[in-house]
Amino acid sequence: MDIEKKVWEILLSEEDIRRRTKELGQQLSEEYANKKLVVVSLLKGSFIFTADLVRQLSIPVKIEFMTTSSYGHGEESSGIINIINDIKKDLTGYDVLVVDDITDSGLTMKFVMEHLSKKNAASVKCCVLLDKPERRKVDIVPDYLGFTIPDKFVVGYGLNYGDYYRNVPYVFVVTDKDR
Ligand code: 5GP
């Protein structure tokens, strides 16, 4: 796809995202108070959301990063999830919160949560900024969610288009000009 022949349409503004992230931070701070919280951020897509979310937490938190295989330049998941970089931390006794940019088929999140559950964590939950429930291939519902969105390919705020545009501070939809 050639981005020059596309229309950008803002789906979520910086202010929308800021407001919701603040609410999630407050909710998580209450629910994880007096727990040993470890946030596991899935790279690359969630690096911006994670950075903003953890700064809204008023409780102690450890932060780890994990890289799984992603869509690359395409728009469809291969259905096969690979761990490219696992976390090295011993999770025994920790309450793990996996943070991702978007849940689409759900394959990535289900795989990662099952993988981390085998590391002796006290609990494993997830928080995603965006959810496209219409595209689900496995049974998973985000424990904490920013926004439910329609079945459209979204870009910005960490989400890439051909590995570009992750730095755009809002979320936008790319569509064909003649649509
Ligand atoms: P899932 O395993 O749930 O199908 O997909 C998870 C990953 O696919 C996300 O972390 C994200 O990297 C990528 N992805 C899914 N939907 C979109 C989308 O609409 N836009 C972009 N840029 N990436 C997406």
- The quaternary structure here is single chain
Number of helices: 3
Poorly predicted segments: none
What would you call the structural class? Answer: alpha/beta
Strand proportion, as a percent range, falls in: 25-35%
What is the string of helix and strand elements? EHEHEEEHEEEE
- What is the 3D shape? globular
- Overall number of structural domains: 1
Hetero compounds: guanosine-5'-monophosphate
CATH architecture: 3-Layer(aba) Sandwich
Q: How much helix is in the residues?
A: 10-25%
Give the CATH class. Alpha Beta
Work out the radius of gyration: 16 Å
Question: Describe the biggest sheet?
Answer: 6 strands, mixed
Number of strands: 9
The overall pLDDT, averaged over residues, is 92
